[in-house]
Amino acid sequence: MNSVLKELQSNREMRIALDAMGGDFAPEEIIKGAHIAVKKKNVRIFLVGNQQILERELNALNITDEKLQIRGAEDIIKEGEHPAIAVMQRPNASVNVAAKIVKSGEADAMVSMGSTGAVMVSAMKAFGMMEGIERPIVGGPFLGFAPNTTVADLGANVDCKPRHLLGFALMGCVVARTLFGVANPTVALLSVGAEEGKGNNLVREAFPLLKNSGLNFIGNVEGNDIVNGKANVILCDGFVGNILVKFCEALGTTISHYLDASLKSYLSAVEINRITEELMTKTNYADSMGGGPIWGVNGVAIVGHGRAKADEVAKAITLAKIVVENNLIPEMQKELQKFRRLLTPNEKPD
Amino acid sequence: MNSVLKELQSNREMRIALDAMGGDFAPEEIIKGAHIAVKKKNVRIFLVGNQQILERELNALNITDEKLQIRGAEDIIKEGEHPAIAVMQRPNASVNVAAKIVKSGEADAMVSMGSTGAVMVSAMKAFGMMEGIERPIVGGPFLGFAPNTTVADLGANVDCKPRHLLGFALMGCVVARTLFGVANPTVALLSVGAEEGKGNNLVREAFPLLKNSGLNFIGNVEGNDIVNGKANVILCDGFVGNILVKFCEALGTTISHYLDASLKSYLSAVEINRITEELMTKTNYADSMGGGPIWGVNGVAIVGHGRAKADEVAKAITLAKIVVENNLIPEMQKELQKFRRLLTPNEKPD
Predict the structure, then answer these.
(1) How far is B250 from B45, CA to CA, in rounded Å?
(2) How far does Cα B213 stand from its chain's mean position?
(3) How far apart are CA A329 and CA A322, in angstroms?
(4) Of A222, A240, A255, the CB nearest to B240
(5) Which of A143, A223, A228 shows the shortest C-beta gap to B242?
(6) Is residue B187 within a helix (H) or strand (E), and if so which, with residue range?
(7) Which residue of B223, B245, B267 is in closest CB contact with A243?
(8) If pLDDT is split at 50, 70 and 90, which confidence band does B8 have?
(9) Which has the higher per-residue pLDDT, B335 or B6?
(10) Which of A49, A57, B65, B180 is deepest in the core (most CB within 10 A)?
(11) Residue A187 bridge partners (DSSP)
(12) How high is the pLDDT of residue A10?
C-alpha cells in the first residue's frame, strides 16, 4: 500500500532553488530541511530570500555547508496580502527569484512551502504554460489508502471544460507512469454513478472525449472509488477536488482526535501516537509526500504544505529531485503534443 | 455531539405506509423493523407489497400484530431495472402504492429502503412538488462528528442554478429548526475559499442572492468546515454532495478496517468492535439516523439505506413520525412561499 515513488540512482548533483521565506515556519524549518537534504542527497541548494534574515538564521542554527548558498531576494510578501496578486506585483519576492534561478538554468527545480497560488503564478510567469494547457494544475494521490490513485485537479481550475479534463488525464497518466511506475494507468471520471450518462454536464460531455482518446479509460467512478483506488488517474474539476482534499484532511484529523480519546484507557500515549500518526499520514497525505509538482508549466516547481517542518521540506526537495530525474516535464510536453488538436478550444475563449 | 432530533410526545397514532419490498434485505428485515416500531411507538403500519410473499414472511417470522396490516402491491421492480424508470412504468409497484396510501390520507408518511431515485419519483408523482422547487432534494447531516450540520443537495440535483441553492437553504433551515431545534440556523456556501468571490461560477453567482436573502448567511465555507460543523446548513450542488457522502462513508469503512488490524494486538475483539462501530456510526451517519426525508415534495417520504436491517428500518419509521409531528412539510411550504419570487426562474427553463 505504500507509495512507490521511483527514486533513481543518479550521480548528477541536483540543484534546487528553495524559497526560504515561504511557509508557516520559514525561514527556520526551511533551512533545517535544506540542511537535512544536502546531508542525505546529492543536492546543492540555493536558499532564496532576504540575505540578512537568512544569514542570521544560519548563524543561529549553527549551520555551514558549502552546498547551501544564500541567494538574495529582497521583497517580502506581507501577511494579509493576496499571495497570487502579490507575486505579480513583487518580482523580487523570494518565490519569483527562485523561479528565475530555474529559468536561467542555474537550478533544476524550485521548491516552496508558500501559498499554492503564489507558486503557480510565479512558475507560470517564469516557465510559461505547456502548449494546450491554460492554467496550472495541482494533482496527485491525496489519500494514503490509495497511494497509486492520482486525482486532478485539486485546486485552481474550478470551472472546467471537457478538454481541461482531458489535459488532466494526459498529465495524470504521465505522473502515474513516470513517478509511480504504473505501466498502463487506468483513467476514470469522478461522477455520481458508474454508467455512461450519469453525472453533471461536464462529466457527460467529457465522457465521449475520454472514451475515444486512446487512454485506458474505464468510465465513471464514484466518491467511494477514490478510497478504494479504483483507477490510477481520477478526473474532477478543481472545485470538487479541493473540497475533497480539505474534507479528507479534516476528517482524518478529527478521527485521530477521536481515537486519542477512545484509546486512552487502553493504550499508552506512545502506542496511541503510533496509530494516530499513521492515520494522519494516510489522510493528510500531501504532507507526508512533501508536496507535489505543479502540472502544466514548463519547469519543475514543487509546492509543499504551508505548515511543513524540516522533515517535510527535505521530502519536498527529494521529490523535486525525483521529478527532474524522471523527466516529468518533457514527458508531459510530449504527451500533450500528441493530443494538441483536442486540447485546443474550438469555441471562443471564455 | 449527538444528534438532537426533536421527538415530540404525542398521543396521536401515526400511520405509516412502509414499502416492504424495497431494500437489500426486504421483506424480512423490513417486516422485523416494522414489528420493532409498532411495539415501541404509537404507530400503525401498512406493509406494502406482494400479498402472498408478505403473508408467508409474517408466518415464517411468527409475527401477528393488529397494528401491522398488509396492503397488496402486485408489481415488483426486478433486479437490473432502472429504479426511477421502473417506478414510472409500474404504478402498482410497492413504492408507488405506499405513496398513494399517503396521498389518499390513509397514512401520514411513507417509508422505503428502496432506491433513492425510485422513492423520489414516486413521491413526486403522488404528492407533487412544492411551489418553486423543480426536483426533489436529499439533504441532512451526513457526518456524526457534525450532527447539527445539514448539507444539501446530496443527490439528484447535479447541475444547479443559484435559485436552486436558495431553495436548499430555505428547506435546510426548516430542517435545522424543526428537526434539530436550532433556533437561528447559520447558512453557508461550500466553496474553495472563505472570501466572497472564491469559488466556481455557481457559488459566485449564488453568494449575493444568499447574502441578501435575510437568512443567517455566513458566507463561504471549505471542505474541512463540514467536518468542523461551521454552519448549520451547508449548500452545494448534488454532484459535489453525492461524491462527498460516498467518499466519507468509504473512508470511514476503510479506517475501521485499518483499526481492526492495528488494534488487534492490543485490544479484545469486543473492545475493537465498540470503537470501530462508533466510528462507522459517525462516518456512515445516514444509516444510523435510519434515513432522511425527501425535501421539496408535498408529503412525507423517508428514504433509508438499501442495506438497512431491522433496527435501521425501525429508526426510519421513528424519523417519519418525528417529521410528521414537527410539521416539516407545511413549514417548508410556508418558507418557500415567502421567497416565491426569488425561486421562480427569470430565464427560460433549461
Answers:
(1) 33
(2) 25
(3) 12
(4) A240
(5) A223
(6) strand B186-190
(7) B223
(8) low
(9) B335
(10) A49
(11) A217, A233
(12) 66
Under an 8 A CB cutoff, do B246 and A222 touch? yes
Judging contacts by C-beta atoms under 8 Å, the chain A residues touching residue B226 are: 247, 250
Across the interface, whether the CB atoms of B222 and A243 are under 8 A apart is answered yes
pLDDT of residue B76: 78
Phi-psi region of B260 (alpha: psi -120 to 50; beta: other; left: phi over 0): alpha
Is the pLDDT assigned to residue A2 strictly greater than 80?
no
Encode chain A in three state secondary structure. Answer: CCCCCCCCCCCCCEEEEEECCCCCCCCHHHHHHHHHHHHHCCEEEEEEECHHHHHHHHHHHCCCCCCEEEEECCECCCCCCCHHHHHHHCCCEHHHHHHHHHHCCCCCEEEECCCHHHHHHHHHHHHCECCCCCCCEEEECCCCCCCCCEEECCCCCCCCCHHHHHHHHHHHHHHHHHCCCCCCCEEEEECCCCCCCCCCHHHHHHHHHHHCCCCEEEEEECHHHHHCCCCCEEECCHHHHHHHHHHHHHHHHHHHHHHHHHHCCCCCHHHHHHHHHHHHHHHCHHHHHCCEEEECECCEEEECCCCCCHHHHHHHHHHHHHHHHCCHHHHHHHHHHHCHHHHCCCCCCC
Biggest alpha carbon distance in chain B? 64
Q: Please report which confidence band the pLDDT of residue A5 belongs to, taking 50, 70 and 90 as the band edges.
A: low
Query: What's the grid cell of residue A304?
Result: 509543499
**For residue B287, pLDDT beyond 80:** no
Closest CA to B317 of B31, B43, B10: B43
Answer yes or no: do A223 and B240 touch at CB < 8 A. no
pLDDT at B4: 54
> What is the per-residue pLDDT across B230-261, written as a single tens digit (0 to 9) for each?
999 999 999 999 999 999 999 999 999 999 99
Residue corresponding to grid cell 501577511: A79
d(CA A77, CA A142): 28
Give the pLDDT of residue A155: 83
How far is B120 from B87, CA to CA, in rounded Å? 10
pTM of the model: 0.93
Average pLDDT over residues B180-190: 96
- The answer to whether the Cα torsion of A130, A169, A242, A280 is positive or negative is negative
Check residue A1 and give its pLDDT.
Answer: 32
Task: Say what percent of chain A tops pLDDT 70.
Answer: 95
pLDDT 10s digits, A251-272? 999 999 999 999 999 999 999 9
Give the percent of chain B with pLDDT over 70: 95
Q: Is the pLDDT of residue B1 over 50?
A: no
Sign of CA dihedral A60, A61, A62, A66: negative
The residue written with cell numbers 431553495 in the block is B167
Residue B298 pLDDT exceeds 90? yes
Would you say A250 and B227 are in contact if contact means Cβ atoms under 8 Å apart? yes
Amino acid code (one letter) for A264 = K
pLDDT above 90 (res B132) = yes
Query: Residue holding cell 448539507?
Result: B151
Nearest to B321 by CA among B103, B7, B3, B98: B7
**Do residues A142 and A245 touch, judged by C-beta distance below 8 A?**
yes
The grid coordinates listed for A53 are 534574515
Nearest chain B Cα distance for residue A272, angstroms: 10
- Calculate mean pLDDT across residues B81-99: 91
Mean pLDDT value across residues A143-170: 95
Q: d(Cα A201, Cα B350) in Å, to the nearest integer?
A: 12
Q: Taking each helix axis as running N to C, give the angle between helix A238-263 and helix B269-283, from 0 to 180 degrees, rounded to the nearest 10.
A: 150
Contacts of A17 (CB under 8 A, 6+ apart): A45, A46, A48, A71, A97, A98, A99, A101, A102, A106, A107, A109, A110, A111
